[in-house]
Structure formats: C-alpha cells, structure tokens
Design brief:
Shape: elongated
Oligomer: single chain
Strand order of the largest sheet: 1-2-3-4
Mean pLDDT: 84
Structural class: alpha+beta
Radius of gyration: 24 Å
Order of helices and strands: EHHEEEHEEEHEEE
Low-confidence stretches: none
Helix content: 25-40%
Length: 179
C-alpha cells in the first residue's frame, strides 16, 4: 500500500508521519498488501481545528473519510475508525456477493427469429449464464456503461432475479418478479 501525505498550514513532523503510517498500515489486513492500493492523507490545521482527509483507492475500492478534532493524533485515530468501518462493510459485501453467486442456478436464455410476415417464431439457440449479484443502482450504471438494451442480474437486496432495461425516452425500467 502506497501512502502519500499532504500537509497544509503546518510543518510536517517525522513523528506524526511515522505515527500515521503505522496506524494506516493496519488497513492492509482488510484488503491485503496489494501494491495497487493508494492512500492519500491530507492533514490540515485551521486555527484550533485539526482536520484529516483520507482517500483509499485501489482494486474496486474507493473509500474516503474526513474527521476533525483539537488534536491531530486523535483526528488520525478517528478517521482510521471510519475507514475501518467502511472497509469491513465493503469486504463483507464482496464476500456475500461471492457466496450468493456460487449458490445461484444458471439461467437459460432463448433466442428466436421470424422468417417472414405472419410466420411463427422459432427458437434458434439457448445460452446459460449465472447472474451477478448487484444493487439496482450498480446495475443501472453497468447497463449505461455497456450500452445494452437490458441486463439480467441478481438483486443483492432482495436476492431475486431482476431485469433492468432501457426505455425509449432514455430512462430505465426495472422488472422485479414477486414470488
């Protein structure tokens, strides 16, 4: 994990850097010791208010936290607590997605075409896939990014298969079957 410090309105001390680096390196136990992780730490002083802004960016992670108090060491501890809570939530969400993805059954997708005006439709092929567990807003972002007409996914909140589709006016529609 690469840690970069930025100081504003006060001179950086080696003791403060060493303390902050030692505290923030404990975050690696949640995400592993990946070299692609970047931790940006901005420490600033405004009169009596000492503020720490931290952003962790890496493999599918983008977490930020801000905290302030009258002591910089206490501020570092407070912002570390916030980051730990967010990382724990992120890690548990990823584990839950993996666990539910393993237990889900395959879905059959049928393709058909018509040969002429008024003729019957015929199924010409099938596909199978395991839907990814996503939240509705993540599915909407993925549909928008991929420029597909629809996306079948496993709703991570309701644990049901959902379909999100693009409407003619550019908005999205959601099909959520009630069991």
């Amino acid at each position: 994990m690469n840690i970069a410090f930025t100081f504003k309105n006060f001179e950086p001390s080696e003791h403060l850097k060493k303390y902050a680096r030692r505290r923030f390196e404990k975050l690696a136990r949640f995400v592993g010791k990946s070299a692609s992780l970047e931790l940006q730490v901005a420490l600033s002083l405004d009169k009596f208010r000492q503020k720490a802004e931290v952003q962790l960016v890496g493999d599918s992670i983008n977490i930020a936290a801000v905290e302030q108090s009258e002591d910089m060491y206490a501020t570092i501890d407070l912002v570390l607590d916030k980051l730990e809570a967010q990382l724990k939530k992120h890690v548990s969400r990823v584990k839950e997605r993996r666990r539910s993805a393993r237990t889900n059954a395959n879905i059959d997708v049928f393709t058909y075409h018509t040969e002429g005006e008024g003729e019957d439709r015929a199924i010409v092929g099938t596909d199978q896939f395991v839907p990814k567990p996503l939240h509705v807003d993540e599915a909407a972002m993925q549909l928008d990014a991929l420029d597909y007409e629809f996306l079948v996914f496993l709703n991570a909140e309701s644990e049901r298969i959902n379909v999100i589709y693009r409407r003619r006016n550019g908005d999205f529609g959601l099909i959520d079957p009630v069991v």
